[in-house]
Amino acid sequence: xxPKLNRLLRALAREGLEVAxxxxxxxxxxxxxAHAPPAEVLLPPDLPVEGKAFQQLAQLAALRHPGGGEVLxxxxxxxxxxxxxxxxxxxxLHTRGLVVPGAIGTDINCGMRLHVADISAEDFxxxxxxxxxxxxxxxxxxTRDVTMASRASEALLRDGVQGWLLETLEQPLGCAGRADLxxxxxxxxRIHLGGGLKxxxxxxxxxxxxxxxxxxxxxxxxxGGNHFVEVQRVEAVEDRARAWxxxxxxxxxxxxIHSGSRDVGKHVGVAWQDRARQAWPAGTPLPASGILPLGDxxxxxxxxxxxxxxxxxxxxxxxxxxxxxxQTLRELxxxxxxxxxxxxxxxxxxxxxxxxxxxKGACPAGAEQPVIIPGSMGATSFLMVGxxxxxxxxxxxxxxxxxxSRFSLSRGGADQSEAALGLTGVDCITLRAERRVEEAPAAYxxxxxxxxAQVEAGIVREVARLCPLLTFKA
Length: 474
Description:
alpha+beta
């Protein structure tokens, strides 16, 4: 291990990084920048190290704004890997006096939602074909109906799921008219932050604030990339008392949703990265990383309100994706409760110890809080409980993390056989053949070492394991 590690550290030094490793935790910063806090990466020795991701992490720790403010700490989860926007996926950034729109990006409040249902895998698979055809209609062909009144749309953007529910109770339309609204209301307490932040409709596209009915084509859609809807079986329970309290039992059906704010997040994220550039003091050199913080208090307040607006949309997007699936289960299997276990965000800026904590592809892991860590569509997923570990900035991984880029999997000459991609026995429903290749199990790191590293570090504890039955990819 030591000669290999020494070679790695020398290679990273040639890339301008000062790196140390104690066998569990990497410490990294830009060479010659003693004022920046060292960024920490929890990474077991058997997982790959990517120089580009380390570079992005060190540049994030070195951010400054001419008007003041500071980066206090930067941490990365074991699934971290390079991000297309210049911020590594898995980064957690603690700041004071500044916020960084680029540290969240455009997939605002990408997150996970988990339900369980008292249906056996055998009974479900007996009706698999009928279920898949109905869900393909909802997710891919537009048979879903997510119409809402403009008042409900504005309430959603302003107050989140609770605002939408209050207006929808008065005028239930579309699929909401078939939903058990009392159940949705009772489940709000199982959504992180109650499913709502203080947003404002002014930050959303104009189509959401028109008078009359709002029919948004993006609501209840999965989205691209690593987003998915997966039907699973609860394979094993490790913490029986906690699982019982959360309504989780061995042998249950489960469904897990990974999606975010779609076009609303893109609208907000792009606009605010542009605005951060416009607000940068004239004559002051731009950061080499291209990541621009906001230091002006008014701009910080406005950005956080805009981010909250997109986050509110994402909470409802996941709720409706789940509700369409739950309604379909009820059509096929009768009176199925299928309660929510938890809904948790990955990409958000939230208050933390007198400053701000921005997570980019990382899951909140506060004490006693449910944590959802999915594997690839060919691997186990994990339901965990957070330990509130301060050194980890109360954050856990949001998955296994990519091991290979989409390009490397789809380029000419790449081995795209089922065996090479890890797709043997995987039931993936998609209309795009390339999506199955790009998101194949071979694209991802093994989930077990990622989870074990966090258990050993006292970040999370295991509650239950879930194995995939079928996965929808857009």
